[in-house]
Write a structure and sequence with these properties.
six-stranded parallel sheet, globular, about 25% strand, 9 helices, Immunoglobulin-like, alpha/beta, 2 domains, 15 strands, five-stranded mixed sheet, about 350 residues, Mg2+_PAP
Length: about 350
């Protein structure tokens, strides 16, 4: 993340030069999500060079995985590209930012439960930009505003073993493993299937990982049979003017995305899942305060043995308040499953 931020001016300039001299090669659009309620659909994608990334495999060695990680972070984003996005006959033209990100919002006036729609992406050709194919599509996920339950989950050290609090270990895992060799915490697939009632309840993944890891996370969820859902990863929110002022490590974006979900689905109550390694307990405590009665329970995976005094006070305040849901620190997924069963949040 820090490396990408620091090298953004160089990568941006290099991409512009390659475009000017016609050396960008074929361009593809990677759809990231299309989801919403019956009134609005939020759409996001990336414009990137159509580099060939081999499929993950459990048989790949460290060297092959490191090469794959280098390709992923090799500056393939394409800035300032115009893309036409189409939904139910409505078309919008947007321009990619410095990291190749495109997004927009559509009004959804044709919502019917169980009716399936798609969003289409089309690169508008110009000198130096050649599309890999004419259109790329992604299915739209629409959920009722009054649907009774949803799940919001972190990723690193919540479902995916990441060692996020130990920089060296986290870096090594990130570059030496692939989607098939990264390990989930035991029992996560079962827990999430029980919470979603076999797909009836939506799950949203809100993480501080950046969009370059989108394919790895998506393939990891599919391979480990963990229920999929919209991935709300971290945008840089920086440009060439303010890059040197950016802190890069704050988790405010997670709160913003959680607030978006609570506002999109005002009748939905949520189960929040995270870990103790960074700021999830404090973040979820803020959500409980801002949205009284909307949180059913909070599960925090205990990745550190000791809890600091400030967090002990926070936990005591939440769990002693009659109007607050319980914040449960667990050392294993099995503990969370037992608690959820005893509180009728899941049914076996």
């Amino acid at each position: 993340m820090i490396f990408r931020i620091l090298t953004l001016p160089v990568r941006y300039t290099f991409s512009k030069v390659k475009k000017a001299v016609g050396k960008l090669g074929e361009i593809k659009i990677e759809p990231l999500y299309a989801f919403g309620n019956k009134r609005h659909i939020y759409v996001k994608g990336r414009v990137i060079e159509a580099y060939k990334q081999s499929k993950p495999s459990a048989r790949k060695n460290y060297f092959q995985n490191i090469l794959g990680a280098l390709r992923r972070y090799a500056g393939s984003s394409v800035p300032d590209a115009k893309v036409e996005i189409s939904y139910l006959g409505v078309k919008k033209v947007v321009e990619s930012d410095e990291e190749g990100i495109i997004d927009c919002v559509f009004d959804s006036v044709h919502y019917k439960e169980n009716e399936k729609h798609k969003v289409g992406f089309k690169l508008i050709p110009e000198e130096g930009l050649t599309p890999e194919k004419n259109w790329t599509f992604i299915p739209v996920r629409q959920y009722e505003e009054q649907h009774h339950r949803g799940i919001i989950s972190d990723i690193d050290d919540t479902i995916l073993i990441s060692n996020a609090t130990v920089l060296g270990k986290k870096l090594w895992l990130s570059i030496s493993k692939n989607a098939y060799t990264r390990r989930p915490f035991p029992g996560v697939s079962e827990f999430y299937h029980l919470l979603t009632e076999g797909g009836k309840n939506p799950v949203f993944y809100v993480s501080s990982s950046d969009w370059n890891l989108y394919d790895l996370i998506r393939d990891f969820l599919n391979y480990r049979k963990i229920p999929d859902g919209p991935l709300l990863l971290k945008d840089f929110h920086v440009n060439l003017k303010n890059i040197w002022k950016s802190g890069g490590g704050d988790h405010q974006h997670k709160l913003e995305k959680i607030e978006l979900l609570f506002d999109l689905y005002p009748g939905m109550k949520f189960i929040l899942i995270g870990d103790s390694g960074q700021h999830d307990p404090e973040l979820y405590a803020q959500v409980i305060k801002d949205y009284p009665g909307r949180v059913l329970s909070v599960y925090i995976r205990q990745v550190k043995k000791e809890m600091n005094e400030a967090r002990k006070i926070l936990l005591k305040q939440i769990n002693n308040s009659p109007d607050s849901p319980e914040m449960v620190f667990v050392s294993s997924t099995e503990e969370a499953i037992r608690h959820a069963k005893s509180n009728s949040l899941i049914h076996s």
